């Protein structure tokens, strides 16, 4: 049994395009052939799960191509065209195969291609033909379309945010392959698009947690192959942006439909719970310093590079400096120029900085002043939390600077702060700090669980703000809650008549 393995992953924040331009080819980390196994094999990532599952089935994984970039603006047409054709070339060289397992994100947008995953799905399908099963694992933040569901044999999303179940869900799509290949299993999927735009919401917090429990309950039925409540990604201004529920059953379209509508109905009923409550950075820092015990982790969610923000925002840093704490640290601020200046000066020297705030006026002005160069590193380490455990990280040369009592990690690469490893790399034990600022929305929780005494989310202006109303929506195919409070229910009423944007698929 030969299973081709590959992927294309990008969470596209179309609003970031105006600030940083289209995402170029160079932004992608591309692994080809055996490089995929060398990089992802044995890790707790999507591909780690896919590769292990192929092994456990006694099959052989045929690695094609995998491309991934940090979330950013719309993918340049030339970059997408190049990576698409390279992925297809590599897949073609893998033929003949019995199945294809892909890691896709589900919220990738390229210039001229709103639904990158469906476009890739169609291309892969036409390459391998209708009888070779093609399965994919998606991010929770996918804006899932009927076109994607239609063209693939099975689509499964992670259910946790932080995405600590990447490995398990990667395994799940491969585990379904033998049944699909042999024709013992006939996947019948039903997608219910939910007309709602929700902010970054941890899956352990209600009502997301409740939706997860309902999904897990549905998956207990052995006729159900997979079930996911996709939160969607509101940073993409595309017609189909929004949450959705996807259920795939074995040869039972009625069950898939009933289950998907049940979950979608539950989410819709509980939608008020997803409404964001915003806390300015100054308030978050004040509350953190007033806490009886540290460390309190403050998430700079609006400037999370993991949602397409520049990562060089200064609102939280400014709030930390103004609060005057001498037990505060922040990581990581993206500013290659400042890192270069620190390198030129060397450890133990003072430099004058204009830190961050280089990309636009939205994320705050540069912070100016003298900074002490405490440490310089290569910015390389491995993730040590359940979300992608073991994956190598390279944020480029990085400096630890002391700025008026605040320890700031300044990196040459844009990166979400996923766990405490990057602090340790620079000699910082976050347990000894009162306030720890991170450039992340939710994923940091996987790494700081057991460390943080409390977690606060700071909202400042930024491209990844939780305030979904802060962005102009020019392309939506219909109303969305909470922008339009009168958005009608996505579930058709029993007598018909209700709006029905759902779509039944029987691929
Ligand atoms: Zn995600």
CATH superfamily membership of the largest domain, which one? Response regulator
CATH class of the largest domain: Alpha Beta
The total count of strands amounts to 20
Biggest β-sheet, characterized?
A: 8 strands, mixed
Small molecules bound? zinc ion
Strand content: 15-25%
Count of DSSP H/I helices? 15
Helix content: 25-40%
Radius of gyration: 23 Å
Mean pLDDT: 94
Structural class comes to alpha/beta
Distance between the termini: 22 Å
Which fold name fills CATH's third level, the topology of the largest domain? Rossmann fold
**Shape, please?**
globular
Total domains: 2
Query: What CATH architecture label of the largest domain applies?
Result: 3-Layer(aba) Sandwich
Strand ordering within the main sheet: 12-13-16-17-11-18-10-19
Poorly predicted regions: 495-507
Explain the layout of strands and helices.
Elements lengths: L1 E8 L7 H4 L7 E5 L1 H7 L5 H11 L3 E10 L7 H18 L4 E6 L11 H13 L5 E5 L7 H6 L2 E4 L8 H10 L1 H6 L4 E8 L13 H12 L4 E7 L12 E8 L2 H17 L11 H10 L5 E5 L14 H9 L4 E7 L1 H10 L4 E6 L11 E11 L2 E3 L9 E3 L3 E6 L2 E6 L9 H5 L9 E4 L6 H4 L5 E5 L44 E2 L3
Parallel strand pairs: 1-3, 1-4, 4-5, 5-6, 10-18, 10-19, 11-17, 11-18
Antiparallel strand pairs: 2-3, 7-9, 7-20, 8-9, 12-13, 13-16, 14-15, 16-17
Helix pairs in contact: 3-7, 4-5, 9-10, 11-12
This protein binds zinc ion.
């Amino acid at each position: 049994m030969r299973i081709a393995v590959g992927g294309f992953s990008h969470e596209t924040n179309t609003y970031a395009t105006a600030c940083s331009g289209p995402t170029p080819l160079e932004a992608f980390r591309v692994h080809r052939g055996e490089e995929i196994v060398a990089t992802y094999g044995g890790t707790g990532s999507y591909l780690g799960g896919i590769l292990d599952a192929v092994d456990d089935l006694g099959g052989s994984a045929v690695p094609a191509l995998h491309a991934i970039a940090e979330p950013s603006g719309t993918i340049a047409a030339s970059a997408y065209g190049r990576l698409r054709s390279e992925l297809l070339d590599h897949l073609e060289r893998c033929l003949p195969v019995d199945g294809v397992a892909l890691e896709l994100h589900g919220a990738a947008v390229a210039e001229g291609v709103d639904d990158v995953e469906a476009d890739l799905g169609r291309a892969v399908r036409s390459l391998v033909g209708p009888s070779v099963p093609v399965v994919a694992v998606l991010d929770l933040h996918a804006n899932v379309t009927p076109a994607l569901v239609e063209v693939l044999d099975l689509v499964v999303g992670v259910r946790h945010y932080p995405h600590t179940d990447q490995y398990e869900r990667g395994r799940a799509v491969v585990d379904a392959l033998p049944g699909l290949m042999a024709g013992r299993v006939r996947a019948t999927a039903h997608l219910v698009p939910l007309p709602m735009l929700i902010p970054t919401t941890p899956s352990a917090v209600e009502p997301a947690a409740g939706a997860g429990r309902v999904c897990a309950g549905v998956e207990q039925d052995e006729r159900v192959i997979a079930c996911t409540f996709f939160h969607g990604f509101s940073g993409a201004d595309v017609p189909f942006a929004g949450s959705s529920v996807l259920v795939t059953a074995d040869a039972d379209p009625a069950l898939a439909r009933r289950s998907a509508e049940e979950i979608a109905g539950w989410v819709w009923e509980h939608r008020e719970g997803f409404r964001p409550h915003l806390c300015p950075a100054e308030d978050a820092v004040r509350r953190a310093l007033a806490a009886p015990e540290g460390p309190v982790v403050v998430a700079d969610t609006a400037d999370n590079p993991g949602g397409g923000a520049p990562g060089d925002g200064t609102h939280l840093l400014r709030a930390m400096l103004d609060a005057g704490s001498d037990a505060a640290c922040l990581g990581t601020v993206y500013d290659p120029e400042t890192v270069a200046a620190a390198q030129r000066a060397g450890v133990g020297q003072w430099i004058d900085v204009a830190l961050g705030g280089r990309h636009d006026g939205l994320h705050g002005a540069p912070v100016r002043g003298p900074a002490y160069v405490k440490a310089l590193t290569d910015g390389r380490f491995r993730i040590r939390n359940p979300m992608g455990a073991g994956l190598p990280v390279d944020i480029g040369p990085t400096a630890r600077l002391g700025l008026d009592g605040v320890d700031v990690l300044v990196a040459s690469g844009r990166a979400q702060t996923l766990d405490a490893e990057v602090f340790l790399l620079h000699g910082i034990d976050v347990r000894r700090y009162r306030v720890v600022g991170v450039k992340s929305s939710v994923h940091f929780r996987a790494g700081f669980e057991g460390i943080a005494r409390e977690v606060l989310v700071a909202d400042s202006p930024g491209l990844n703000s939780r305030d979904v109303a802060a962005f102009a929506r020019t392309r939506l195919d219909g109303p969305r809650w909470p922008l339009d409070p009168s958005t009608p229910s996505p579930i058709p009423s029993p007598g018909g008549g209700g709006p029905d944007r759902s779509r039944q698929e029987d691929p």
